[in-house]
Amino acid sequence: MRKIYIATHGDFSKGLKHSLEMIAGDSAKEIETFSLYPGASAADFAKQLMKELSSNNEDEYIILGDLFGASVVNALLETTSFEQVTLLAGVNLNLALEILLAGPNKLTDEDLEQIILNAQQGIRRVTIEKLENEEF
């Protein structure tokens, strides 16, 4: 089974989960979130997750963090010492949706690279090109 965690600063993780539930329905309800607030410690969440990982080596864990090099992702870096953990930074709705809909099989390195590439493709500058002689 795949367990998905979204860990971010503030309520971003909760907002992503809510959006995923709107798009993907009940399949997103199992996603766990962590929101770092001022005065709290991401290290506490990492310790809690490390305990869970120590007692569960059967499930695949995908942890989606917000900012590479920031406190949340840095605190969770230790979880990658477990073979069943993949930690990805730079979470956005595209990436979270790709992970959620990736199917039940364990994700390979190739799968993860394709998922990241697909998520990056959703980042675009969007404009309307005006056609010559077009009137509004």
Automatic annotation (TrEMBL):
Q: Where is the PTS EIIA type-4 domain?
A: 1-131
UniProt signal peptide: none
> Which Gene3D superfamilies does this one have?
Phosphotransferase system, mannose-type IIA component (3.40.50.510)
* UniProt keyword annotation of Electron transport present: no
Q: What is its main location?
A: cytoplasm
| PROSITE patterns referenced in this protein's UniProt entry, alphabetically | PTS_EIIA_TYPE_4
- Which Pfam families does this chain map to? EIIA-man
Q: Where in the cell is it found?
A: Cytoplasm
Q: Which GO terms describe its molecular function?
A: kinase activity
Task: Write out the GO biological process terms.
Answer: phosphoenolpyruvate-dependent sugar phosphotransferase system
GO terms for CC? cytoplasm; membrane
Key word Kinase present: yes
Q: Which InterPro entries does this entry report, sorted A to Z? A: Bacterial_PTS_sugar_comp, PTS_EIIA_man-typ, PTS_EIIA_man-typ_sf, PTS_IIA_man
Report keywords, A-Z: Cytoplasm, Kinase, Phosphotransferase system, Sugar transport, Transferase, Transport
Q: Which PANTHER family match?
A: PTS PERMEASE-RELATED-RELATED (PTHR33799), PTS SYSTEM MANNOSE-SPECIFIC EIIAB COMPONENT-RELATED (PTHR33799:SF1)
- Please give the name of this protein: PTS sugar transporter subunit IIA
This protein's species is Enterococcus silesiacus
